[in-house]
Amino acid sequence: MGWIMNIYIVNPGDTVSSIAAVTGAAEEELVYINQIAYPYLLAPGQALLLPPLEGGSADADGRAAVMAGYAYPFIDEATLAETLNYLTSIYVFSYGFRADGTLVAPQIDDTRMIQRALDRGVRPILTLTPFDTEGRFNNLLITSLLHNPPARENLIQNLLNTVVQKQFAGVDVDFEYIIASDRDLFTAFVAELRGRMNESGRTVSVALAPKTSDDQPGLLYEGKDYAGLGAAADSVLLMTYEWGHAYSPPMAVAPVDQVRRVVEYAVSRIDPAKINLGIPNYGYDWTLPFTEGAPRARTIGNIEAVQQAVEKGAEIYFDETAQAPYYFYVEDGVTHEVWFEDVRSISSKFALIEEFGLLGAGYWQLMRLFRANWILAAETFHIEGSSM
Question: What's the first-to-final CA gap in the chain, in angstroms?
Fold first, then answer.
């Protein structure tokens, strides 16, 4: 443990004051950047992002990259305001549709969120999902839409009307669990939607399940043609997360070794300059021993995870293969295992973006503020505001 470039790993007995003395960082900056809660206690193994060097320009030498992420219209005002400082695009989650192509708006009005983005020069993006009128995911809607040309035309026209009326800069198509026989119809739909949106100066992106081969089996993968969709859309988002999920055994949400496999396949089928790397802004808290069908793991924010480690007296470890932090604690006689993201794991994902020359990053999701992540992004990249 110790000081590694601009990241400091907390040793037992370290305090904010002692770290400030060693690194030359101001105490108030360490607290602010890393969202350290009063009374400013730390967990052994915790990763802290150090302030930028005095007089340094955070993004002067960084390669251009986009930063985007999904958010619900009820996002906290302060979180939205701060996060917009670092974004290229913000995806409003989400719009659904009916079988006849009628568009279904979010249950909470998104006008405030769109206007805040426009005021800051950030591109608001309409996220389209197969949500029905009850706000539930319904993949039968996908098949119904794709096999009904009048419904497709109605949906595209409704999307065009909405993006113009509400000043969206584009549409993100987030359809999951597409059946294999609908694969080509889905690609054709994305291509048609892009052509129509491009005519009005707007873009179309599409979310892709994390495949590693053309013929990867499974309902999540079979309906997504990487090469076809890469050509059909202006950009794509690789959903490179949920290896560890609410019903899985404990593990990293986005282990970088697995993420790398997806990226390697993706760049063999899609122009890297069209690819955004998905990054999770959350972790999970599992109870042990893990058993199939056990209660779901609890979703936990990255800052919340560190605060919990401090409260439980837990030491944070780092898995070098997955490039992800984790820890254990005991509560009411039950052992818990927690995996989350920190600036080390984020840095390893940023390194993939640089190595493969990807377009940038897309976060699921932005509802919890992770300030060190955004400051690290600004230190690593020049945030490109004109793409995606």
Answer: 39
